[in-house]
Every structure is written in structure tokens, then in C-alpha cells.
Amino acid sequence: GTIDFVDDVAVWLPLHAICDLIGVPDEDRDDVLRWTNTFSVPTDPDFAPTMEEAMTAVFAISDYAVALADRRRREPREDAMSKIAAAVAHAEAQPLLADFWKRNPPP
Fold first, then answer.
1. How many CB atoms lie within 10 A of CB 30?
2. What is the 8-class DSSP label of residue 7?
């Protein structure tokens, strides 16, 4: 058979590499590709017929990233998003712990 190198390899190889690092599940990668193409090429009518669609894609991928981080905070794995989520949770906890120890110093 034949392949279209751009569609079959050049698009998917970097997408899978980045998604593997971040921890994006296989079933979500088509959405990630669509959102990325839509907001990164907003002047190409093949990807984003309108600027509104480009902005919708920006918000969609942002919402997805927040949801994925929340999922990885609750169910960590060996991926970058889990590490980021843990670091953010730790940073958010630091002021709370500092305040607790100020009010409740150890003996």
C-alpha cells in the first residue's frame, strides 16, 4: 500500500510523542490534534473557518488540560502532567501548612 507521509506520519509522530510525555490518553488524541490545528492555523479555512472557532479551540484545549491535571492529581501516573499537578498541589498547600504551624507550633 501507499501512505501519505504528512497525514500518516509527520502529523501523528510528534503528536503521539508529546501526548505520551504529557499523559494524554489515546482516545483523546484526535481531539487534541483538532484543537491544536484549529487554533494554531486560524487563518487557514481548512482548519479554522472562523476566528470564533479558533478561540473555541483555545478554550476547549485549556479546559481539557485543567481536567487532565485534576485527574492526574487524583490518579497520578508517570507522566509530566502528574508531576505538574503534584507540584501545583504542593505549592498550594505550602501557605496552608505554614499558617497551620504558625497557629499550632510544635512543642
1. 10
2. I
**Model's pTM, two decimal places?**
0.77
State the Cα–Cα distance between residues 75 and 101, nearest whole angstrom: 28
Q: What are phi and psi of 79, to 5 degrees?
A: -140, 170
Q: Specify the 3-state DSSP secondary structure of 59.
A: helix
What pLDDT, in 10s, does the model give residues 67-100? Answer: 999 999 999 999 999 998 888 888 776 776 666 6
Q: CA 101 to CA 106: how far, in whole Å?
A: 7
Q: Which three cell numbers stand for residue 37?
A: 490545528
SS3 content of the chain, % helix, strand, coil (to 5): 75, 0, 25
